[in-house]
Amino acid sequence: KAIAQQFDQCRKSVLAKPRDTDKLRVEVATMREQMRNKLGSKDKHAFLIKQDRGGLIDIEFIVQFTNLNCAHQFPQIIKYTDVFRQLNAHRHFSLLANADIEVLLESFQLYRSYLHRLTLRELSPQVPASRFRIQQKSVAEIWNRIMER
What we know:
The chain has 149 residues and is mainly alpha-helical. The protein has helices at 2-15, 21-39, 56-70, 83-92, 98-120, 133-147; strands at residues 46-48, 126-128. It contains 6 helices and 2 strands.
């Protein structure tokens, strides 16, 4: 129990360090682009739910960017480690537009649920591009507004 508490204190102190927003944005966007290039689908008619633009990992990166950028002012946003509760904390402190948070939460839940079903059936996480076109486009638009200034 003591080790878990020490780890949590260390985690929070690292996450809550003040950072240069523009530099952080570039670093996070660059890392994400490298991941997309390496792990994303190369098929324009397919959507890899986790890795492609507008997918699950983009949502996680938006949340982590916001955490790293704002936790020094709002340490409550890093109380929990899961994306769902972190997004709700972002809403509480108005760190992202409410409409964007709704899109991110709904898309995250939809993607996770669908991925779980695919995994249980031992199917590929790559689906036809049309399957999540609305969510993918919406998440990508939010990404562009937040990360590509």
